[in-house]
Amino acid sequence: MSGQMRILVIEDEKNIASFIERSLEASGYEVVTAFDGETGLEILAASDFDAIILDVILPKFNGWEVCQQVRQRLQKDTPILMLSAMNHTNHIVKGLDSGADDYLAKPFKMNELQARLQALSRRYRRQTTAPSVLRYAGLEVNLEAKEAWREGRKVKLTIREFKLLECLIRNPGKALSRHELLEKVWGLDFDTGTNVVDVYVNYLRNKIDKGYPNKLIHTVYGMGYILKENHDASE
Ligand code: CA
């Protein structure tokens, strides 16, 4: 395990909560425990965890309600492993519907719980490693919303212009050849014999750089284009 993982345990049965806490701490996790749903949500609102172990039957908000609030009100996608003695299919479905990622029936074996936790956090880390917002020199590109901003001003782009900008901002300071851009933005691995790249770079310049004293898109003569802050050796 790289780095210490923080786990929040929300479980009102104190002996089970302390059993989970001791076992996880012995395995190198940092554990915080809450004995009711409301307290669990307060802790979650104030701090981030790598995973949540959540009992279903709890005082002050049951597990399903906590789950929904974590996803909807707190807008957190922290992995949630639900625990319940009610091992019925409809309860499992209800748990997953309310936003839980996995479900473990009581009584459970500690190694089973740890295996599930590991699997959940691996998936979570994989999803969160790629940033969805790229920033460079006052330029901001949101890959999920497919929106671009320059100095806080929204820039309207076509899909192709957006892809071109995405390609440039993923490689700031690196000269990209026309061939590379054709391949990455248009999916063509041959020279079309057209000036399509230059045409689109011009469209993009009009939207990104026009009116700003500090240009970001620069020509690399005989080669292609580069996204960078200062323009020596170009234009
Ligand atoms: Ca309980």
Structural account:
- This protein is α/β, with parallel strands linked by helices and 235 residues long.
- The protein has 2 domains: 6-125, Response regulator (Rossmann fold); 133-227, Orthogonal Bundle (Arc Repressor Mutant, subunit A), CATH 1.10.10.10.
- The protein contains 8 helices and 12 strands.
- The strands form 3 sheets. It has a 5-stranded parallel β-sheet with strand order 2-1-3-4-5, with helices on both faces. It has a 4-stranded antiparallel β-sheet with strand order 6-7-8-9, with helices on one face.
- Helix 6 packs across helix 7 (178-186) and helix 6 packs across helix 8.
- The longest helix has 20 residues, at 110-129.
- The model has no long low-confidence stretch (mean pLDDT 88).
- Bound molecules: calcium ion (CA).
- Residues 12-13, 55, 57-58 line the site of calcium ion.
Give the fraction of residues assigned to helices: 40-55%
Spell out the helices and strands N to C. Answer: EHEHEHEHEHEEEEHEHHEE
The fraction of residues in strands falls at 15-25%
CATH domain topology of the largest domain:
Rossmann fold
Largest sheet: 5 strands, parallel
Bound compounds, each kind once, are: calcium ion
Question: How many domain units?
Answer: 2
Q: What is the count of helical runs?
A: 8
Number of strands: 12
| Gap between N and C termini | 50 Å
- Unreliable stretches (pLDDT < 50, length at least 5) are none
Radius of gyration: 25 Å
- Quick check: average pLDDT? 88
Shape: elongated
Give me the CATH superfamily of the largest domain. Response regulator
- Which class of secondary structure composition applies to the elements? alpha/beta
CATH top level assignment of the largest domain: Alpha Beta
Judging by the overall fold, what is the CATH architecture of the largest domain? Answer: 3-Layer(aba) Sandwich
